[in-house]
Amino acid sequence: MAAILKELENQALQLSPQERGELIHRLIVSLEGPAEDAPEAVAKAWDEEIAQRVAEIDAGTAVLIPHEQVVAEIDEMLKKASN
Fold first, then answer.
1. From its phi and psi, is residue 13 left (phi > 0), alpha (psi between -120 and 50) or beta?
2. How far is residue 68's CA from residue 21's CA, in Å, rounded to a whole number?
3. Which tens digits make up the pLDDT trace of 17-72?
4. What is the pLDDT of residue 83?
5. Cα–Cα distance, 45 to 51 (Å, whole number)
6. In this structure, what DSSP letter does residue 72 have?
7. Rounded Cα distance, 50 and 33, in Å
8. Which residue of 15, 66, 69, 82 pairs with 19 in a disulfide if CB–CB is 3.0 to 4.6 A?
């Protein structure tokens, strides 16, 4: 089995970055199983979520975080993850 995995790895590394990404996606989907909802249902759920968040912003009940703060927090997380 280990020889087969090594051969698959060697072949996968010959693929373009886009092809490797597609392969990764397919492998992950094969582990997780098929999506529970149809794409239309997922899109509808996102539309509803977006509408709810916009309503919260309009009502002044959303907690907004400045872009600079978000970027700084992400940079900090990436620094910690790379150590």
1. alpha
2. 30
3. 999 999 998 998 888 877 677 888 889 999 999 999 999 999 999 999 999 999 99
4. 81
5. 10
6. H
7. 27
8. 15
